[in-house]
Amino acid sequence: xxxxxxxxxxxxxxxxxSVFAQAVTDNKIEEAPAAVTKAAEVAVPAVQPASIDDVQxxxxxxEQRVVRLLSTVGSIDEINDNHFVIKGNDGQMTVxxxxxxxxxxxxxxxxxxxxxxxxxxxxxxxxxxxxALTRSIPPQGQAIALVVGKxxxxxxxxxxxxxxxxxxxxxxxxxQNEDMEILIPTDDRGQIPNIKAGMxxxxxxxxxxxxxxxxxxxxxxQVLPDTFDMRLDKEAGKVWIHxxxxxxxxxxxxxxFLSLRDAAEALGYKTEWHDSGxxxxxxxxxxxxxxxxxxxxSKQKMRVQLHDVPQMxxxxxxxxxxxxxxxxxxxxxxxxx
Length: 337
What we know:
Helix content is about 5%, strand content about 40%. It is mostly beta strands. The strands form five sheets. The chain has a seven-stranded mixed sheet. A five-stranded mixed beta barrel has the order 3-4-5-8-7. The protein has a five-stranded mixed barrel with strand order 9-10-11-13-12. Strand 21 (about 295-300) and strand 22 form a beta hairpin.
């Protein structure tokens, strides 16, 4: 229903991870590119890892494009089919926004998902929308989220741009406008929240600093539904990542397997196959390692054991979907374990 929204929030409104050593199995060559790739792409260790315990992180810098998201605090002035006119308060811009199935309609006090017929003219609202606006009066654009409720009580709609830190205090991230640094504390049991880049959240906070970026600690947070990194269609045997087709899937012994290279590269990871059989998946300082036929995996040098193992099928490296859900921590739609 909803899609992951790669947008940013402009206003600060306080509201209440080459050279591929090719693996050979049964005389079949792993699905790797030519053995020589530009050295700048992946820094391969001088000594090939003999096991996943020997893997060191690769060094890379990822350039991320920032796309700003605008907002208006005001009220609903008109409702015309799927177009809402939002009248800004205190000189803020009045805009006419298109509302579609990708727009979040939220009760900013309770976090409840709303439907169109639950909104009325006069409702207090913060509208978050694309900066691509017409030059008409009022400007017209696409709504990303409408958060309804009194300004002093309602939460803020934020999209997670980048995780800054993850420690005993909780998880700290930058919003996609990079003008807010938000800490979501550990829960009552000391568990760190499962927050990932690309997720959309509703955040409530009591105070914030006047620094740039502004800093705040959430007193409450809610991950919005359907913020999926990956969607699977088992009947079609297809995988979609961020709305784009990203290789095939197969179901074997009731386990879903994905083509590692296709899925990893679609997510922005680099993939290295080593002579020892070790496979390394990395993105910046984030890295993972695995071996064909082994239930042991490595996550940032930490040993993790999953129920299913990577396999060579038709000369292609396939990994269980749990590599992406449990190891990489992605949110996956239309999949049951």
